[in-house]
């Protein structure tokens, strides 16, 4: 490859993978510490019983991450076994109710399509070392990455597990070497920035995927999130996503949409991250009649519905529409990107990238509200569907009649996604690789799909196209202060927030048209009869008045 | 028989009537606000006002029912057809001819037959319809998990709103009727000072003079 082309490709990929690059430039995984920030609230594990700077095991010279892990596990003897059960390691989840095999290892999302086959890039967010293909050893405890979650120095970072297109590697070059001893001796409980390294950047950039998880939550004011408020409660993620043997509560694959158990006995509930597990099942202090009604509503309405009036707040936009159909446009034979959106915090966002297509951003968005029973039904690689119609990547169920359902807020994502038009399935697209088929670098969707499908022995008709897809993201973070919560008439009104929610009569929103018509006619009819009667009394001859 | 000015509405009855009026006005105003006919109150304020007024009215009714049955005043509301035709004929024709109202208040019959029937229907049909449906509506969240709860809620809302419209019609006619006598004031005064002209039998007159002289004006 000619040096000029190589350079421009490098530039392009740098741009395309900007979120990761940004992280690499000092925010990985925690922003630089200025002064000593107050410790975040992490739940009962806070405090600790040991000083890691005093452990001999951490004073040995380390040349790599796995060597540090080995040292960690030499004291934390059971942690490896515990950790290997959790989804950050397995990237796999079998839904006990639907039987579907889920997790990043298998799923197709309607953002960057699929991690499967692209682990060299995507598995930067795997809590392990070196997953670049099917040969990764999931049984080797030394492959666990302890530091990405437990680093408190802000000097630890990760790079892709494989080089990718020849142009890609340069963007990860030139970083200062990691001082593993410094990092290891300063481990602590995970803070928001640790989790945020990956979870704030899902979908390939800041807040792209969830809409309610963005870098704005690293150091949020009270208005953005009342629990994570850096100057107030200052909750770390694990304050709610409580942990038991390195397994976290709060799964998006298996949502508890209605928790009627509440707080449980002191110290006993370690299984849920619901609002009710702290706030109980009668969360509003009963100081008025309205508070009684609010407490009643918890059997129908999720806390999030009223208490997260808008998502993608705090100055960081989320992507709401993504169009892969326009990907692959080249200028002078090279990929490019376009700015087109300035978000609330002043940062520019790309609205087009040759490697990904067109994006539409949104901020301060009103969620979609629907009955939700916590059950998601995924369109997986082997699901057949009608390519002429939009397909839901994760359709959800729920209704007024279902006892587990409540009205929940969602971010709805719409994407034109590559698909196998002949077989009517989604596809694994080969985006990342050192070969000539990888889409990122070669821009041939047909080749990339054929490669991605063949790699896993999947049928591919050879005829690719694009289908309109939806995905639904329950909104649960960015909880507003109570004074910003929705008021009754936001929903109890015509054309209110819950206009699209079916199956329930809501005073203020719903009317029986016939009753209103008959009632109005009756009232005005009475008025006319009265006026007529009065008129006749006035004009009629009075006759024999005494 | 002698026409005497007699206190036919006791202090409690007058208190009952006017506080009931006030509460019904509040309930109609807040209720039709909740229904979406106006937006002069926020939904939360309207719910609070509506619920408070409803409970106050139920309390008032509890006292009034006790009063009606312990004072035998419930007998005023026993329906009768005697004299009904004359009253109906009066409102349909006679009133236009300048005739007098055919009904004379008696001590144990202070309402004319049409009035008595209308008030009785209000008490045993319309009011129960609205307060029972209202309580069921208010406590929806206690029964939301029974089968067909949404259909039941639809029906409850329908009954509650329908009864409300009917009460509006009743109030309109009720107020209009006050204008049909010699003067509006003459009709309203008994409910203010308690006194109206009543046809007393000699026995009633003698009894009242001896045992309850304060009742005679």
Quick one: which chains have the greatest interface? A-B, 47 and 39 residues
Provide the helix percentage of chain B: 55-70%
Please provide the count of β strands of chain A. Answer: 15
What is the overall pLDDT average of chain A?
90
Alpha-carbon distance between the termini of chain A? 119 Å
CATH superfamily of chain B: Transmembrane di-heme cytochromes, Chain C
Gyration radius of chain B (Cα, Å) is 20 Å
The SSE string of chain B, one letter per element, is EHHHHHHHEH
Distance between termini of chain B?
16 Å
Question: What oligomeric state do the depicted chains represent?
Answer: heterodimer
DSSP summary: helix tally of chain A:
16
The residue fraction in helices of chain A comes out at 10-25%
Main sheet summary of chain A: 9 strands, mixed
User: Biggest sheet of chain B, strands in spatial order?
Assistant: 1-2
Rg of chain A to the nearest angstrom? 28 Å
β-strand percent of chain B reads 5-15%
- When the domains of chain A are counted, the total is 1
Number of domains of chain B: 1
- Runs of chain A in which pLDDT lies below 50 for 5 or more consecutive residues are 10-30
Number of strands of chain B: 2
């Amino acid at each position: 490859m000619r040096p000029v082309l190589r350079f421009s490709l490098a530039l392009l990929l740098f741009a395309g993978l900007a979120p990761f690059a940004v992280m690499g430039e000092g925010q990985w995984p925690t922003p630089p510490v200025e002064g000593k920030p107050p410790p975040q609230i992490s739940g009962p594990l806070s405090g600790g019983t040991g000083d890691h700077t005093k452990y001999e095991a951490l004073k040995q010279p380390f040349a790599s991450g796995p060597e540090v892990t080995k040292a960690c596990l030499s004291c934390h003897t059971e942690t490896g076994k515990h950790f290997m059960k959790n989804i950050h390691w397995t990237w796999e989840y079998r839904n006990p109710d639907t039987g579907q095999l889920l997790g990043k290892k298998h799923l197709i999302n309607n953002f960057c399509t699929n991690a499967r086959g692209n682990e060299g890039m995507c598995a930067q967010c795997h809590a392990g070392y070196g997953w670049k293909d099917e040969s990764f050893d999931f049984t080797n405890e030394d492959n666990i990455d302890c530091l990405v979650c437990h680093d408190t120095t802000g000097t630890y970072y990760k790079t892709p597990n494989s080089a990718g297109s020849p142009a890609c590697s340069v963007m990860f070059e030139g970083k200062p070497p990691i001082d593993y001893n410094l990092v290891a001796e300063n481990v602590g409980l995970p803070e928001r920035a640790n989790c945020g390294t990956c979870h704030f950047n899902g979908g390939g950039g800041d807040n792209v995927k969830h809409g309610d998880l963005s870098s704005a939550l690293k150091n949020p004011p009270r208005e953005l999130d009342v629990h994570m408020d850096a100057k107030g409660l200052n909750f770390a993620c694990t304050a709610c996503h409580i942990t038991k043997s390195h397994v976290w509560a709060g799964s998006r694959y298996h949502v508890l949409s209605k928790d009627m158990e509440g707080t449980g006995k002191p110290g006993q509930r370690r299984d849920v991250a619901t609002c009710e597990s702290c706030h109980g099942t009668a969360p509003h202090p009963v100081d008025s009649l309205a508070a009684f009604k609010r407490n009643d509503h918890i059997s129908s309405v999720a806390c999030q519905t009223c208490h997260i009036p808008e998502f993608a707040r705090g100055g960081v936009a989320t992507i709401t529409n993504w169009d892969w159909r326009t990907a692959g446009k080249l200028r002078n034979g090279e990929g490019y990107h376009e700015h087109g959106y300035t978000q609330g915090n002043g940062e520019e966002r790309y609205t087009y990238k040759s490697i990904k297509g067109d994006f539409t951003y949104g901020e301060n968005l009103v969620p979609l509200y629907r009955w939700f029973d916590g059950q998601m039904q995924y369109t997986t690689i082997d699901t057949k569907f009608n390519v002429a119609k939009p397909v839901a990547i994760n359709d959800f169920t729920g209704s007024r009649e279902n006892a587990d359902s409540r009205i929940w807020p969602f971010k709805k994502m719409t994407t034109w996604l590559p698909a196998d038009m002949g077989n009517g399935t989604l596809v694994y697209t080969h985006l990342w690789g050192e070969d000539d088929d990888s889409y990122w670098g070669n821009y041939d969707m047909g080749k990339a799909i054929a490669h991605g499908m063949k790699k896993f022995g999947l049928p591919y008709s050879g005829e690719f196209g694009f289908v309109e897809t939806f995905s639904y993201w329950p909104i649960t973070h960015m909880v507003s202060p109570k004074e910003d919560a929705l008021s009754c008439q936001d929903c109890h009104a015509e054309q209110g927030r819950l206009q699209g929610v079916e199956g329930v009569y809501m005073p203020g929103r719903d009317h029986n048209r016939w009753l209103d018509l008959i009632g109005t006619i009756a009232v005005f009819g009475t008025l006319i009869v009265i006026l007529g009667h009065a008129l006749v009394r006035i004009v009629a001859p009075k006759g024999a008045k005494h | 028989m002698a026409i005497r000015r007699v206190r036919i509405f006791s202090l409690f009855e007058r208190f009952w009537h006017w506080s009931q009026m006030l509460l019904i006005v509040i309930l109609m105003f807040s209720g039709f606000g909740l229904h979406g006919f106006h937006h002069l109150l926020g939904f939360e304020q309207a719910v609070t006002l509506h619920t408070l007024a409803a409970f106050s009215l139920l309390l008032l009714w509890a006292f009034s029912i006790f009063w009606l049955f312990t004072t035998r005043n419930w007998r005023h509301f026993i329906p009768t057809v005697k004299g009904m035709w004359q009253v109906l004929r009066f409102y349909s024709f006679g009133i236009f001819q300048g005739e007098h109202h055919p009904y004379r208040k008696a001590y144990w019959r202070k309402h004319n037959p049409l009035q008595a029937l209308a008030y009785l229907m209000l008490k045993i049909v319309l009011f129960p319809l609205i307060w029972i449906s209202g309580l069921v509506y208010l406590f929806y969240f206690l029964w939301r998990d029974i089968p067909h709860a949404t259909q039941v809620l639809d029906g409850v809302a329908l009954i509650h709103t329908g009864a409300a419209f009917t009460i509006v019609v009743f109030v309109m006619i009720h107020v209009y009727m006050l204008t049909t006598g010699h003067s509006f004031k003459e009709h309203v005064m008994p409910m203010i000072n308690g006194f109206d002209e009543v046809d007393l039998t000699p026995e009633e007159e003698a009894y009242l003079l001896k045992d309850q002289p304060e009742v005679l004006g």
